[in-house]
Model the fold of this input.
Amino acid sequence: MKYLIYYLMGINILSFICYGIDKKMAIAKKWRISERTFFYISFLGGCLGSLIGMIVFRHKTKKIKFYIWHIIMIIMWGYLFYKYWR
Done:
């Protein structure tokens, strides 16, 4: 169980950092991280870090599909966590 906690902490930190990097690259008008990558990271468990990264860096906040996707992933991971611990 502790490995799952470590995994989720790591993937959420990674997703948060990705939003910061992409925001910095967007400002500099350089190479960007694809939206698909953000969705994959969220699906793999980084949904909370992604949502926090969106808010902190004010990045992709006008795209409603990102909010909806991350909230659905948070609910899915919450359900899986609940089922696993139960």
In short: Residues 2-28 form the longest helix (27 residues). Residues 1 and 85 are 9 Å apart (CA to CA).
